[in-house]
Amino acid sequence: MNEQSRGNLSTLSSSTINGRQNSREFSTASSVNSESPLIKQQSLSEYETKTQIPLSISIVSGLQLADSSGEFKENASPIHIPLQNDKKPVEMEKDEDLVVVKAKKGRLRFNFTIGEAITFVAWIMVIVFVAWYISNSISNYVTSLGNPTTSLAYVESLPLYYPAITVCNWNAALDCDYCNLTLMYSTTVNQEYGTIEQFELPHTITEIEQNGQYFTCYVFNNDTQNLLAANATGYGGTISLFFRVPLAPVERDARFGLQVSFHEPGTVPPVFAETNFAISKVDNYFVLTKYVTTRLKPTIEDPSLVSVRWESKLSIVKLTEVEKDVVVISFAYSSLNENRITEVLTSSIEGLLGEISGMVGMMMGIDVLKLLRGGLEIPYAVHHKTLRGIWEIFN
């Protein structure tokens, strides 16, 4: 019985081997081209090995085989059925919308479509524009720091205090008999009756040395604790000072007259640089306007950030029956307002950041959270050697 079983097993194995060979031949015959069957079969096998995608499957089915005695026996034989595919092996490796950029080992891989390529070019253009905009904004900001604009405000002040008044002889020398001056009297206008009245105006006599010149001067209203105030403008608030000035020798060809400085009480004016002058035989009438300037940075001319100055406008009225060595100086306010000038910057660091963030958000659609997500994606992009994740975050 064992020998018979072994014989049956041998017959069955032989039949199985023959069936597999027949199946292999059938598969080969049905899959190859009649023109080059060997080359086609080889290319198909290589494609299956490369892509690991089978082009056909084998199904084992029972076949009725007849032996030499005429009896039919069942034998398991594989049937090779090709898979249906519309594309050829070469065509299956390609996609019409996919552009494959091969990279060497160790480099990043880039896989993008034509639409993504166009988007990438647009990104470059937008980045260049935004970079130019940021550079220009920063340049304008730096320029504005050195060239601030000013705002002017008119603030009514009642009463409005007069400035300190320093009157000096134009001729200045250490030992000079015609470089002196003498105050005769001072007058004001009675606001009730409109008449001119003499009054006592506190003053001091001093010598000021500037640039090698010695000036003999009278200083009025220089006590910061007891300042003279104006309650009226124009003629009603006028104060006049009458001085007697020695005449200069004719042969010396010296100038004759006084110079007047209006300055902040408690300070010494730049007498040598003064440009307000008064001559004889006329009423030298100075109309004053007070300015308070607030600066962002100190200057050489005004080291303090807040400076006070009085601008004057000269008008003259001819005097009759006046001696030629008498010089009259009058002054009054044009208005009882303080003109406050404040330096302001046209741009600030907050405004600069707002402009930049607004442009970046509008042109590139980038916000803080998107930048954070993009930054967190960088380690993964480096590890996997692909920028696809970062691209998807920003697009």
Brief rundown of the structure:
The chain is of the alpha+beta class. InterPro entries: ENaC.
Q: What are the salient characteristics of this protein?
A:
Acid-sensing ion channels like fold, seven-stranded mixed sheet, five-stranded antiparallel sheet, disordered N terminus, transport, transmembrane helix, sodium channel, ion transport
Word description of this protein:
The protein is 31% helix and 33% strand. The protein starts with a helix and ends with a helix. It has helices spanning 2-31, 37-51, 89-92, 114-146, 349-364, 368-384, 388-394; strands spanning 56-66, 72-82, 99-101, 110-112, 149-156, 160-161, 164-169, 182-189, 196-198, 203-210, 213-220, 229-230, 239-244, 258-263, 277-278, 282-294, 306-318, 326-344. The protein is an alpha+beta fold and 395 residues long. The strands form 5 sheets. Strands 5, 8, 9, 13, 16, 17 and 18 form a 7-stranded mixed sheet that branches. A 5-stranded antiparallel sheet has the order 10-11-7-14-15, with no helix packed on it. It has 3 domains: 2-94, no CATH class; 110-143 and 348-394, no CATH class; 153-343, Acid-sensing ion channels like domains (Acid-sensing ion channels like fold). The chain is elongated. GO terms for molecular function: ligand-gated sodium channel activity. Its main location: membrane.
